[in-house]
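Objective 1b. Sequence-to-structure analysis of Cobalt-precorrin 5A hydrolase.
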Amino acid sequence: MECNALRVAGFGFRAAATAASLHDALEQAGGVAGLTALAAPVDKASAPCFMAFARALALPVVRVSQGALAAQSTCTQAPRVQRARGTGSVAEAAALAGAGPGARLKMPRQISTDRMAACAIATGDRT
């Protein structure tokens, strides 16, 4: 990875998710190696489980607005999520928005074993 590249893990998660749920989703999506930030919707980014997770990884959190989520084109198109959030995948949209214009997904979002969290990793260029 180039030294000027961003690698952002985006998350979507349920209210009952734990830091372990988030960690499991991240591992399934490719792991922490090379990450520069974590991203989540504004209304989820200050959840205690997410903040504890970010502190444990010593990574900054990008808080993604609803408008920025809805502006992303995602691989996954979950109808329930589309109706609730205006995007097909919160995790994919958060990762793309967090990594900036021209970002690309590593793969579609991955779901934790307990089905409480989803994670997608996107890469982009620092501007």
